From TrEMBL:
<keyword id="KW-0275">Fatty acid biosynthesis</keyword>
<keyword id="KW-0521">NADP</keyword>
<comment type="similarity">
    <text>Belongs to the zinc-containing alcohol dehydrogenase family. Quinone oxidoreductase subfamily.</text>
</comment>
<keyword id="KW-0496">Mitochondrion</keyword>
<keyword id="KW-0443">Lipid metabolism</keyword>
<feature type="domain" description="Enoyl reductase (ER)">
    <location>
        <begin position="3"/>
        <end position="309"/>
    </location>
</feature>
<dbReference type="GO" id="GO:0005739">
    <property type="term" value="C:mitochondrion"/>
</dbReference>
<dbReference type="InterPro" id="IPR020843">
    <property type="entry name" value="ER"/>
</dbReference>
<dbReference type="InterPro" id="IPR051034">
    <property type="entry name" value="Mito_Enoyl-ACP_Reductase"/>
</dbReference>
<protein>
    <recommendedName>
        <fullName>Enoyl-[acyl-carrier-protein] reductase, mitochondrial</fullName>
        <ecNumber>1.3.1.104</ecNumber>
    </recommendedName>
</protein>
<dbReference type="InterPro" id="IPR011032">
    <property type="entry name" value="GroES-like_sf"/>
</dbReference>
<dbReference type="InterPro" id="IPR036291">
    <property type="entry name" value="NAD(P)-bd_dom_sf"/>
</dbReference>
<keyword id="KW-0560">Oxidoreductase</keyword>
<keyword id="KW-0809">Transit peptide</keyword>
<dbReference type="Pfam" id="PF00107">
    <property type="entry name" value="ADH_zinc_N"/>
</dbReference>
<keyword id="KW-0444">Lipid biosynthesis</keyword>
<dbReference type="GO" id="GO:0006633">
    <property type="term" value="P:fatty acid biosynthetic process"/>
</dbReference>
Length: 311
């Protein structure tokens, strides 16, 4: 692509790294509710270094590290030009792969733990899709607050290794879906309280398992539907358990009036990453090898860590 003129309020950023998220692929497929005007460049989050600034730019200088906050399209390119208001300056001590991936999945985890139910130390949450980055972050962020976690994963090769990985992150219990094919699922809760809050990113039977764990008056928050199967809820769950079903979409929290709040949360999450208190599995891939990274992100090569393109 030809270079773009840097106007007085613009910042030219040399990209350092950007992940391939499921929502990026959904945008390309045309099935995501928010679509950039065409023609468009993919990628919705990432980290870069300021190369040059327009004459009216006040708070950024060449050499600064920045991320788009709120996330902004067009991160899968070596250089990108956007107005200063798009960019949030971060500490250059931040690990590049965490800086590139902090604004979507970890922020989703933090907001979901805070926005729906008031949780106290000693409380419990339950989630499916626990090996996802959101799932891994929920385990760690909950543990930092003294909140227990029950985690559900798919039956697949390597599930024992996945259980151990989640336990190292701080998971209290990890079950495969087949382990939960019992008459009374709550008999499996030995020393843990019934969860007040559940998270669902799978749908289908896996969502039903989350609902079975919830206590009376509990809430299940859905933020994804990886199985592409609907959520089925029994009448008794509504009448006798008084369960609530909610949805979470990070995009709704990206309004201009919430920018500072989100950026403060991002700074907090990056601080945890620098301190080693927030970890998740990623694979840094050279931008030249994006074809392989794309195949991995699409699931064509089996279960793979988050793919992060390094420019």
């Amino acid at each position: 692509m030809e270079g773009v003129e840097v106007k007085e309020k613009d910042v030219c950023v040399k990209m350092l790294a950007a992940p391939i998220n499921p929502s990026d692929l959904n945008r390309i497929e045309g099935v995501y509710p928010v679509r950039p005007p065409l023609p468009a460049v993919g990628g919705y989050e990432g980290v870069g270094e300021v190369l040059s600034v327009g004459s009216a730019v006040k708070h950024l200088s060449p050499g600064d590290w920045v991320i788009p906050s709120p996330p902004s399209s067009g991160m899968w390119q070596t250089y990108t030009v956007k107005e200063e208001s798009v960019w949030h300056k971060i500490s250059k001590d931040s690990p590049v792969e965490y800086a590139a991936t902090i604004t979507v999945n970890p922020l989703t985890s933090l907001r979901m733990l805070q926005d729906f139910v008031t949780l106290n130390s000693g409380d419990c949450i339950v989630q499916n899709g626990a090996t996802s980055i959101v799932g891994q972050c929920i385990i760690q962020l909950a543990r930092l607050r003294g909140i227990h976690s029950i985690n559900i994963i798919r039956d697949r090769a390597g599930s024992d290794e996945a259980k151990e990985m989640l336990k190292r992150l701080g998971a209290d219990e990890v079950f495969t879906e087949s382990q939960l094919e019992v008459k009374n699922i709550k008999d499996l809760l030995t020393n843990l309280p019934e969860p007040a809050l559940g998270f669902n990113c799978v749908g289908g039977n896996s969502a039903s398992l989350v609902l079975k764990f919830l206590r009376h008056g509990g809430t299940m928050v859905t933020y994804g539907g990886m199985s592409k199967k609907p959520i089925t809820v029994s009448t008794s769950s509504f009448i006798f358990k008084d369960l609530s079903l909610r949805g979470f979409w990070l995009q709704k929290l990206m309004n201009p009036d919430k920018v500072n709040e989100s950026r403060n949360m991002i700074d907090h999450l990056l601080c945890l990453a620098r301190e080693g208190k927030l970890k998740y599995e990623m694979e840094l891939v050279s931008f030249d090898d994006f074809h392989t990274a794309l195949d991995k992100a699409l699931g064509k090569l089996g279960s793979q860590p988050k793919q992060v393109l390094k420019f």
